C-alpha cells in the first residue's frame, strides 16, 4: 500500500521546512531544507536561524522580520540570501508564521523556504529587459521627435501686412503623425500656404507627408490655380505610391495675393475640414469648401475651391481633425459633433492670428486625454490699421 504518511510529507515536501524556538533557535528541519543547504539532517538543530543568513539578511531579520513574528504576525513572500554549508549564497523565498500557546505567547516559529534561484534569475532578466525597453522607447521618442520637427516648417514666411501663427500638438511622444502645414512666397506679390493630414501614423505616414509637402511647393510654382495644384499632387501620389490602400491625405491649399484692402485668398480643398473665417465685425463662418475628395484616393478626384478677401481685422484659421474629433469624455461624443468649433470661433471673433492659436491651444489642453490624434493649426490674419 502506498505510504501517504505525514512523516513522508514532512521530510520530502517540495519546500524546505523549519521549526524554531521564538528566539529563532532551530529545533528541526526537514530533509529538503538540509539538502538544499548542504547539511546533514540533524546538523542544523540548535543553530540560530539568523546564522544561516547573510549579514544584510540578518540585520533585516533582526530589525523587521523577527519583531513582526514575535507579536504573532506573519511573514509573507520575502526573498533573502541563505548561506549554505559550502559558504555559497542561495536565494530563498521565505514565509513564516507563529504558533501561539494558551497564554497567547509565541511558542514556535514555522518557517518554509523555497529555492528562489530561478526566480532571482527571472527578476534579473526582467530588469534587464525593462532597461532595454526603456532605452528603446527613449530612442523611438527621439527619432519620432526629430522626424516630426523635420516635417514642419522651421519658420513661417508671411508677407508684410499679414500675421501668421502656428501650433502643433502631438498626441503621442512615441509616434509620428501625418499633420503638416507651410507658408511660403511664390512671387513678389503672391504666397502659397497649405495644411493637411496624411492617413495613418509612423514612418510610412511620414514618407507620404514629406512627399506631399515638397510636391505641393513645386506644383504651386508652376500652376496658379489651387485646384490644379491639387490635381498635380494627386497624380504624383498615385504614381509614387502605386495605388496603396489607405495612403491618401486631406488638405487645404491656398494662394494669397495682395490687394488694396488686404489679401485676396483663393483656396482649394481636398476633403479637408473647412477653414474658419473670423471677421473684424465679430462674425465667424466656415469657408465654402465642403465636398472635395481626399488626395490620392482616386485617379479622377473632385476638388472644391472658393475665393474671399482678408481685410484688416480678419483672420483665417486652418486645422486638422485631431481637434474636431477629440473625445469630450461624454459617451462617444466628439468635440465638434454639435457645432462646438464654430461657436468657439464666434466667441473669439474678432481676433488675431496669434490670439486664436493660443485659444485653440488652451482648448486642446482642456480636452486632455480626449485628444487622441495629432492636431495642427495655422492662422493667417490681417492686423487692424491704426
Q: What features would you describe in this structure?
A:
By secondary structure, this protein is α+β, with helices and mostly antiparallel strands. 33% of the residues lie in helices and 28% in strands. It is built from 9 helices and 15 strands. A 5-stranded antiparallel sheet has the order 2-1-5-4-3, with helices on both faces. The protein has a 5-stranded antiparallel sheet with strand order 6-15-14-11-12. A hairpin with a 5-residue loop joins strand 4 (89-100) and strand 5 (106-115). Helix 5 (202-222) crosses helix 6 (226-241). The longest helix has 34 residues, at 117-150. It is elongated, with a radius of gyration of 36 Å. The model has no long low-confidence stretch (mean pLDDT 85).
Descriptive key words:
386 residues; alpha+beta; 5-stranded antiparallel β-sheet; 9 helices; 15 strands; elongated
Gyration radius, in Å = 36 Å
Structural class by helix and strand composition: alpha+beta
The amount of beta strand, in percent, is: 25-35%
Query: Which sequence of strands runs across the widest sheet?
Result: 2-1-5-4-3
Termini separation comes to 109 Å
Number of helices: 9
> What is the overall silhouette?
elongated
Could you give a short account of the major beta sheet? Answer: 5 strands, antiparallel
Give the SSE string.
HEEHHEEEHEEEHHEEEEEEHHHE
Indicate the percent of residues in helices.
Answer: 25-40%
Mean pLDDT value: 85
Amino acid at each position: 500500500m502506498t505510504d501517504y504518511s505525514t512523516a513522508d510529507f514532512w521530510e520530502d515536501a517540495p519546500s524546505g521546512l523549519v521549526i524554531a524556538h521564538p528566539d529563532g533557535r532551530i529545533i528541526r528541519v526537514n530533509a529538503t531544507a538540509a539538502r538544499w543547504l548542504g547539511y546533514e539532517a540533524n546538523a542544523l538543530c540548535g543553530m540560530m536561524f539568523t546564522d544561516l543568513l547573510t549579514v544584510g539578511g540578518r540585520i533585516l531579520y533582526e530589525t523587521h522580520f523577527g519583531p513582526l513574528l514575535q507579536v504573532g504576525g506573519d511573514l509573507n513572500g520575502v526573498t533573502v540570501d541563505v548561506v549554505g554549508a559550502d559558504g555559497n549564497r542561495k536565494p530563498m523565498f521565505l514565509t513564516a508564521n507563529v504558533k501561539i500557546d494558551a497564554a497567547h505567547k509565541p511558542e514556535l516559529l514555522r518557517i518554509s523556504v523555497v529555492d528562489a534561484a530561478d526566480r532571482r534569475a527571472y527578476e534579473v532578466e526582467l530588469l534587464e529587459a525593462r532597461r532595454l525597453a526603456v532605452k528603446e522607447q527613449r530612442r523611438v521618442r527621439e527619432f519620432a521627435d526629430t522626424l516630426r520637427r523635420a516635417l514642419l516648417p522651421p519658420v513661417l514666411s508671411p508677407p508684410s501686412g499679414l500675421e501668421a501663427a502656428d501650433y502643433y500638438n502631438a498626441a503621442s511622444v512615441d509616434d509620428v503623425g501625418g499633420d503638416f502645414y507651410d507658408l511660403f512666397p511664390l512671387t513678389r506679390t503672391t504666397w502659397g500656404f497649405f495644411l493637411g493630414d496624411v492617413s495613418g501614423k509612423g514612418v510610412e505616414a511620414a514618407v507620404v507627408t514629406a512627399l506631399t509637402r515638397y510636391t505641393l511647393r513645386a506644383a504651386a510654382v508652376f500652376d496658379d490655380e489651387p485646384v490644379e495644384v491639387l490635381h498635380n499632387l494627386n497624380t504624383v501620389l498615385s504614381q509614387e505610391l502605386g495605388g496603396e490602400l489607405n495612403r491618401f491625405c486631406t488638405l487645404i491649399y491656398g494662394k494669397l495675393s495682395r490687394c488694396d484692402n488686404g489679401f485676396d485668398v483663393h483656396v482649394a480643398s481636398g476633403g479637408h475640414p473647412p477653414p474658419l473665417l473670423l471677421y473684424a465685425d465679430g462674425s465667424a463662418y466656415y469657408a465654402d469648401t465642403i465636398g472635395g475628395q481626399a488626395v490620392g484616393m482616386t485617379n479622377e478626384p473632385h476638388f472644391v475651391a472658393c475665393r474671399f478677401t482678408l481685410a484688416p481685422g480678419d483672420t483665417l484659421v486652418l486645422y486638422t481633425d485631431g481637434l474636431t474629433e477629440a473625445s469630450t469624455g461624454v459617451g462617444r461624443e466628439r468635440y465638434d459633433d454639435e457645432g462646438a468649433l464654430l461657436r468657439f470661433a464666434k466667441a473669439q471673433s474678432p481676433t488675431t492670428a496669434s490670439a486664436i492659436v493660443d485659444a485653440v491651444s488652451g482648448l486642446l489642453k482642456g480636452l486632455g486625454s480626449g485628444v487622441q490624434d495629432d492636431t495642427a493649426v495655422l492662422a493667417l490674419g490681417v492686423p487692424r490699421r491704426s
